[in-house]
Write a structure and sequence with these properties.
alpha+beta; two-stranded parallel sheet; Ald_DH_N; Aldehyde Dehydrogenase, Chain A, domain 2; 2 helices
């Protein structure tokens, strides 16, 4: 399905029925994009298994709105590098330094 292979920014809600969670994860990951994925489930074991397997920077579970100033925004693959927002959005502008002080 073409809609599952593109990164469309618009009011679209494709609904894809499936019987096997592993099959639908493979289908969802078969794209060069990876900004956001959404899915609905009631079984918490399935929620964690599917969310971890999805190759996306953000995953909305049982919601269509996941944006928040406290949440990092960003994708993987061809959908970007790094994060915006939250404390993680600042990491690109900071230098980390390790200090080891001994023998005082």
């Amino acid at each position: 399905m073409r809609i599952a292979q593109e990164e469309t920014f618009g009011p679209l809600a494709p609904i894809i029925r499936f019987d096997d969670p592993e099959q639908v994860v493979r289908y969802a990951n078969d794209t060069i994009y990876g900004l956001a994925a959404y899915f609905y489930a009631s079984n918490l074991r399935r929620v964690w298994r599917v969310a971890e397997a999805l190759e996306y920077g953000m995953v909305g579970i049982n919601t269509g709105r996941m944006s928040s100033e406290a949440a990092p925004f960003g994708g993987i693959k061809q959908s970007g590098i790094g994060r915006e927002g939250s404390r993680h959005g600042l990491e690109d502008y900071l230098e980390m330094k390790y200090l080891c002080l001994g023998g005082l």
